[in-house]
Write a structure and sequence with these properties.
This protein has about 400 residues and is of the alpha+beta class. About 55% of the residues lie in helices and about 15% in strands. It contains 14 helices and 9 strands. α3 packs antiparallel against α13 and α12 runs antiparallel to α13. The relative contact order is 0.18. The model has no long low-confidence stretch (mean pLDDT about 85).
């Protein structure tokens, strides 16, 4: 935009803006007149955009990483302990709740599963933290085709399936497993054999996932009781009304120790809790606000300086009878140009950083189609607000006092 681009764009944009505005594009000409200030202003707007994009990207990655483990579960309704705020922090349930759920009309099947967390020491000595699910391999607990196809392998003792998107793991390890070469490692005093892989991806608290049978899980966690899974996954009978079954389950199971949600509701509740109650979600949301404030301050400084530099010319126009909306039009014209030409490099840099962060951390960070539109509209509002603030002095000034 600045440097060699300005001489190319000025002859092109000046007549176009003249036609659009119905007058000389004073704001555009003032901006390109001082190329150094224009470069600084565009850099500031682009920086603010990158800051906002990155915070939204991290927030989006948090939300997506919470949703992904729910998507592999083969069920319609999730029964959890009443103190469970997320998929990973609920107390064990009495197994009797599983049988009570099976007695509700419209329930086709119910299967319990366990959750734990283990450390996996890799061959190079580094430690990976893994979220561990213990499932009944005969209960068809997964909808994900890769997991469903390999679930029967878990019936062998101390056998596991491992998330191939686990963070910071050599790719040849999973390639060898997928080629039929089992991988063995020790954890919690037992040797676990990995015979297959699936894909979920790490989140903000763990590097990946591991799936074992419920029997293997109980051998890894001998203090856990066989009759107390963390969750009960309920599948509905064909033709059953989900809302009616949900209401019947809530009526049948005691609310004192049990909560009943559809899988979508459970995922949304988990996302809402972690983005509003956990520090990591609040920090990312606050980062978006900081990005907007930085952008407002930068654009305000540019526009207010421009207004101050041209205050005598504006005073002349004002003395000639030009209304306040004329000056607002000039400043908003500058604000729009800064928003437009600062947004383009901002979104391009953000796309590159998204790719780098995804490759380096394994987080599901990407650019949804609606995010650039949202950020551009926010940038326009940010620049317009800065322009409105910058014209306050001119609005209050007496033309005679400005000379």
């Amino acid at each position: 935009m600045t440097g060699p681009l300005t001489p190319l764009l000025t002859p092109l944009l000046t007549p176009m803006l003249t036609g659009l505005l119905g007058r000389l594009p004073i704001g555009w000409l003032q901006l390109v007149h001082n190329k150094g200030r224009l470069a600084a202003a565009l850099s500031g707007v682009a920086f603010a955009n990158v800051l906002i994009f990155m915070q939204l990207g991290f927030l989006g990655a948090l939300v997506e990483s919470i949703r992904l483990p729910y998507t592999v579960l083969n069920g319609d309704i999730l029964v959890s302990a009443s103190d469970a705020n997320t998929l990973f922090d609920g107390s064990p349930l009495p197994r009797n709740r599983l049988y009570q759920a099976l007695a509700v009309e419209g329930v086709a099947s119910a299967t319990g599963f366990y959750y734990g967390r283990i450390d996996w020491k890799q061959p190079d000595g580094t430690i990976r933290t893994m979220d561990l699910f213990g499932v009944d391999p005969t209960g068809a607990p997964f909808s994900d085709p890769l997991l469903a196809r390999q679930a029967e392998n878990l019936m062998l003792p101390d056998t596991a399936l491992m998330d191939s998107l686990t963070r910071n793991v050599p790719g040849d390890l999973f390639a060898a497993v997928e080629a039929g070469e089992p991988y063995r490692f020790e954890t919690r005093g037992r040797e676990i054999t990995v015979t297959g892989t699936f894909e979920i991806g790490g989140g903000f608290s763990a590097d990946g996932y591991l799936v074992v049978s419920d029997q293997t899980f109980l051998r890894l966690f001998p203090a856990r009781l066989p009759g107390a899974p963390n969750y009960v996954l309920v599948r509905l009978a064909p033709g059953a009304d989900p809302a009616a079954v949900l209401a019947d389950l809530r009526a049948a199971l005691p609310a004192s120790d049990t909560a009943v949600w559809t899988l979508d509701e459970a995922a949304a509740r988990d996302q809402r809790f972690q983005t509003t109650q956990k520090p990591v979600g609040v920090v990312f949301g606050f980062g978006v606000v900081i990005g907007v404030l930085v952008g407002v301050i930068i654009v305000y400084q540019v526009l207010s300086t421009d207004v101050a530099d041209h205050i005598r010319e504006y005073a002349t126009f004002k003395a000639m009878g030009y209304p306040q909306r004329f000056f607002l039009g000039i400043v908003f014209e500058e604000a729009f140009i800064l928003a437009l030409f600062g947004f383009v490099p901002g979104v391009l840099v953000a796309l590159g950083l998204y790719a780098a962060v995804a490759a380096g951390t394994g987080l599901p960070i990407f650019m949804p189609a609606g995010r650039p539109v949202l950020v551009f509209l926010g940038t326009l509002a940010m620049c317009a607000l800065s322009g409105a603030i910058a014209t306050r002095r001119l609005a209050r000034a007496n033309p005679a006092e400005l000379f």
